[in-house]
Design a protein that fits this description.
By secondary structure, the chain is an alpha/beta fold. Helix content is 47%, strand content 17%. It is built from 17 helices and twelve strands. The strands form two sheets. It has a six-stranded mixed β-sheet. Helix 5 runs antiparallel to helix 6 and helix 15 runs antiparallel to helix 16.
Length: 470
């Protein structure tokens, strides 16, 4: 779509609500809006008023279709950098659609997904990292990702990337001088280039190291609840969520399928999965459930092993505990309100015998006594799961983290040319032409994060995931 056109879209979600917003952007935004307004409001618009109340009318028939606020934005002081208008009418399903249809009849064209953010990018109001951050702010399912997205929208990551890009471009300029004037202070210039390239290489490695934390913020952590039938897995699942999601009965084997739910703990998304009890299946349906549970265990990032505190540990539970030794896991002993404590003591003994100190972290230091009836142990178990989920992952609120695979892949692609440049600079007769070619490749990869050298296909893929109206 040409940026010379004026686009329109409903910017608020469909359904019942007090207000809806129809958004316009483009050179004819005020002209289109003018055709929907009565004469009094037209005079206000022509007099330069940027906010006023008005009725809205069909530009063909003159029929009054709604009323509300008119907000006018003058380029370049707008989100897109273009002239824009927002029409704030009533919510619901019919009113917004009729108001949008009126803007189209008045000369606007329908905006596609992400069209407004894309124009903001093309007009220099945002870079690509900030545009992606908008989507993260909208779609964030945890406070942690939301905070990181707001931080990125404010330009924290963009500034870090721009610094790297600027350093590489300055380095390229020094190399060009070396090529043009090889006799001028060649040794000092080569040393300066080497220091700059090495510094960028180290900073890229540091940013790549933040991807683990960014992945946790974006995708959360998959916690799979495992154990024998009727040990209280579903009751604990419901207790952790604070709502009745899984069916609970006295009969073993009630859960036949995997049930998933999400909750946020200290800004991190925990994706809890309740599974069928692990035992020799009694029928075909249960066998399918047990097999599905085993697959869920393999895909788990953290295992929550549930043991019944009122009965002795069974052989299949011993095997489950043994198989979990090398993986992040937490043990919950249920029914602590009526348990005698033997199972808890057994688990403490099990943990003390862990192989090669696998369970040395605080998160896996001891089992947690819980009761779905009284809520005992709930908060402690959630904190322990969170520590197990983030073991070895560094979170620094002051440092932007890579949260998208695109960011990681582009930065990774800058490492080989940086390494080649350092290797060439370390040789006796370093060729500045070779170094310059590698530094340029690295600079292009880094610039790709900001959208400076991003292809049209990549932009199309990114903005197609945006909602219409943003």
């Amino acid at each position: 779509m040409s940026t010379s056109s004026t686009i329109a879209a409903i910017a608020t979600p469909p359904g019942l609500g007090a207000l809806s917003i129809v958004r316009l952007s483009g050179p004819e935004s005020r002209t289109v809006a003018r055709r929907l307004l009565p004469s009094r409001a037209r005079r206000l618009l022509e007099a330069g008023r940027i906010r006023f109340f008005s009725s809205f009318h069909d530009p063909i028939t003159g029929e009054r279709i709604d009323e509300g606020l008119v907000h006018v934005f003058v380029a370049p002081e707008s989100f897109t950098g273009e002239d824009g208008v927002e029409l704030h009418g009533h919510g619901g399903r019919i009113a917004p659609e009729r108001l949008l249809a009126a803007t189209l009849a008045a000369g606007a064209v329908v905006a596609g997904p992400g069209a407004f953010a894309r124009r903001a990018l093309l007009n220099g109001k945002l870079d690509l990292l900030q545009a992606e951050a908008i989507l993260d702010v909208i779609e964030a399912r945890s406070e942690g990702l939301h905070r990181q997205a707001v931080y990125q929208l404010a330009g924290a990551l963009s500034r870090r990337i721009e610094e790297l890009r600027r350093t590489l471009l300055e380095t390229l300029a020094i190399l060009e001088l070396q090529i043009d004037f090889p006799e001028e202070e060649a040794a000092d210039a080569a040393q300066d280039v080497s220091a700059r390239v090495r510094s960028v290489r180290e900073q890229v490695a540091t940013l790549l190291g933040s991807y683990a934390a960014g992945g946790v913020l974006r995708h959360g952590v998959r916690v799979v609840i495992a154990g024998r039938p009727n040990v209280g897995k579903s009751s604990l699942f419901n207790c952790l969520l604070g709502e009745e999601r899984a069916i609970v009965t006295r009969h073993p084997g009630t859960t036949r399928d995997a049930i998933e739910a999400e909750m946020s703990v200290d800004g991190i998304l925990l994706r809890l999965v309740d599974t069928a009890g692990i035992r020799e299946a009694r029928d075909e349906v249960e066998a399918i459930g047990v097999e599905l549970a085993r697959r869920q265990l393999e895909a788990a990032q953290v295992l929550l092993i549930v043991l019944d505190g009122t009965v002795t540990v069974a052989p299949e539970e011993e095997r489950l505990l043994e198989d979990a030794r090398a993986r992040p896991h937490v043990i919950a002993v249920t029914k602590s309100d009526v348990a005698e404590g033997d199972v808890y003591d057994y688990c403490c003994s099990y943990m003390s015998k862990s192989v090669n100190g696998d369970q040395s972290s605080e998160a896996l230091a001891r089992p947690i006594q819980t009761s779905a009836v009284t809520g005992q142990g709930r908060e402690e178990l959630l904190r322990t799961l969170l520590r197990a989920a983030t073991e070895g992952v560094r979170f620094d609120a002051r440092t932007p983290a890579l949260t998208r695979l695109r960011h990681k892949q582009l930065l990774e692609s800058s490492l080989p040319p940086l390494d080649r440049a350092l290797e060439e600079l370390g040789s006796v007769r370093a060729a500045p032409e070779k170094v310059a070619a590698d530094v340029k490749d690295a600079a292009d990869a880094v610039a790709g994060l900001l959208g400076a050298v991003t292809s049209e296909d990549v932009l199309e893929e990114i903005f197609s995931s945006f909602c219409i109206g943003k």
